[in-house]
Design a protein that fits this description.
Elements: E1 14-16, E2 21-23, H1 32-35, E3 46-51, H2 66-69, E4 74-76, E5 79-81, E6 96-100, E7 102-103, H3 137-145, E8 154-157, E9 163-164, E10 167-168, H4 186-194, H5 216-223, H6 228-255, H7 274-292, E11 298-302, H8 324-329, H9 336-360, E12 374-379, E13 393-397, E14 407-410, E15 437-438, H10 439-449
Parallel strand pairs: 3-11, 3-12, 6-14, 7-15, 8-11
Antiparallel strand pairs: 1-2, 4-5, 6-13, 9-10, 12-13
């Protein structure tokens, strides 16, 4: 096999143009240890965590909407079927596990508007009073692996920044429990990941529709030193970056549009239904490219914040609906379950699109796909209306880490709490009818398989043997 060490470009490897530098993907030709037959062929392990607010549709079994629009599958174990709400997961059936009956013990009596803060931390952040958070799942892994990449982690959200206590805009918290600000501007993420700043910063890649042309001569020279497989990978990568660059230019228009200043929602005429979908796709694409270039191995993306606050509440316009949070309140209305499920179906589609792209991308000079070496957590800290129990969770990827998928692990029992809110006591205020498993058990399992020497996370009891 042809070997080539590109580290002379710099530690993370870049193509260079005039005042522009572009991060390169990993190539088999740059893996001299493999060419020499080294036994150290372990691929990089990656983790990405995604959060959506407002819970999921959970009509009761006797409701006509239950068959098609319930978020959780029907059945259990390997004998289960997706509903219309979750059918986007079907092509990934063998690559994911759906979990029910898990939540954080410290948050089970917290109102759903206040619980995103603890999704990855399991901390006792509460609904009011003194506030103290703890380190998040992603940052535990980042401490273990972050020094091996250009960025220890990539922290993103639709609303950006840190938000407020119990109204977080970020999933990531450091060792001291302090919120790590999330980036929400696609162009800023693109520049940060793929453009090496220098004295000619005005010529940075994302500022010009033709900036990649400055890199083509260097790319042509590089291609001559790559294997045929890596030549194809380079061409595909440059096309992907060009496509991402165009998406960034379109998506940034949406995120900077002002929110309506009046309650007449339709007056915000500049915001088209297509823009929120494009924005979501762009954010997922940036994480894909960050992983492909090994710029980072840890990423979080908070798709929306709780309580219908911020630009993220307008993502429902991607499917022709109004405000996302409002959908969770209107399930008792005619077609309410369907509308809520269609919005959740949209989120499921975009997550599945991202996972499938990882699955379709071979791991450079290694065994399996990028998805086999990437662990994806997708979920919410609410299930039924404002209920901080029985979190809807999908765990995908990580087959090369020992995860076994193609199953629905239902720890919630046959009759999980659900149904439309009738205006009386909310589900979170009612007595707990079934004790969930600590979600920390899943987190410990994930961290151990990611290679972190850890026996406990927050209030975990034991790893989840059914996942391995």
């Amino acid at each position: 096999m042809l070997t080539l060490n590109l580290n002379s470009l710099d530690r993370r490897r870049f193509l260079r143009g005039t005042g522009v530098a572009l991060a390169l993907p990993l190539f088999e030709s740059t893996q001299p240890a493999l060419a020499l037959g080294s036994v150290d062929t372990a691929p990089p392990k990656r983790l990405a965590c995604f959060y959506f607010p407002d819970g999921v549709p959970m009509p009761l079994a006797e409701d006509p909407a239950y068959a098609d629009w319930s978020w959780f599958p029907h059945g259990a174990g390997k004998e289960f079927s997706f509903t219309k709400c979750t059918e986007p997961f079907e092509p990934l059936r063998k690559d994911l596990t759906v979990l029910s009956g898990f939540s954080h013990p410290a948050a089970r009596r917290v109102h759903g508007h206040s619980n995103a803060d603890q999704f990855l931390t399991a901390a006792t952040t509460g609904s009011d009073g003194p506030y103290q958070n703890t380190i998040s799942l992603d940052q535990v892994f980042a401490e273990h692996v972050g020094d091996q990449t250009r960025f220890s982690s990539l922290v993103m959200s639709t609303d950006g920044g840190t938000g407020t206590p119990r109204g977080t805009h970020t999933l990531s918290f450091n060792r001291n429990g302090r919120a790590i600000p999330a980036e929400h501007r696609p162009k800023r993420v693109f520049d940060m990941l793929f453009v090496k700043s220098d004295e000619d910063a005005a010529r940075r890649l994302a500022l010009s529709a033709n900036a990649l042309d400055d890199l083509l001569e260097d790319a042509k020279s590089l291609r001559l030193r790559l294997s045929s497989q890596d030549q194809s990978s380079l061409d595909e990568y440059l096309d992907s970056v060009r496509e991402a660059e165009l998406k960034v230019e379109k998506a940034k228009r949406w995120i900077h549009l002002p929110l309506p200043t009046v309650e007449v929602d339709h007056l915000n005429l500049d915001l088209t239904p297509d823009d929120p979908r494009l924005y979501l796709q762009t954010m997922f694409e940036l994480i894909y490219l960050a992983f492909k270039t090994d710029s980072t191995r840890v990423a979080t993306y908070q798709i929306g914040r709780e309580n219908g606050v911020g630009i993220s509440d307008h993502l429902a316009r991607a499917v022709g609906l109004n405000l996302a949070h409002q959908l969770s309140h209107e399930t008792k209305q005619p077609g309410g379950w369907k509308n809520f499920a269609i919005y959740c179906q949209f989120l499921n589609e975009e997550f599945a699109r991202f996972a499938k792209k990882l699955k379709q991308t071979p791991e450079p000079a290694r065994t399996g796909s990028m998805l086999d070496n990437t662990l994806l957590l997708f979920g919410s800290a609410s299930s039924a209306f404002h209920l901080s129990r029985n979190y809807p969770i999908v765990l995908a990827g990580g087959k090369n880490m020992g995860f076994k998928h193609g199953q629905y692990l239902n720890f919630a029992g046959a009759n999980p709490q659900g149904g439309a809110w009738d205006g009386g006591r909310e589900p979170w205020q009612k007595e707990i009818a079934h004790e969930d498993q600590p979600l920390g058990n899943v987190f410990v399992t994930m961290l151990q398989q990611l290679g972190v020497p850890i026996d406990k996370f927050a209030d975990s009891a034991a790893p989840v043997a059914q996942l391995l």
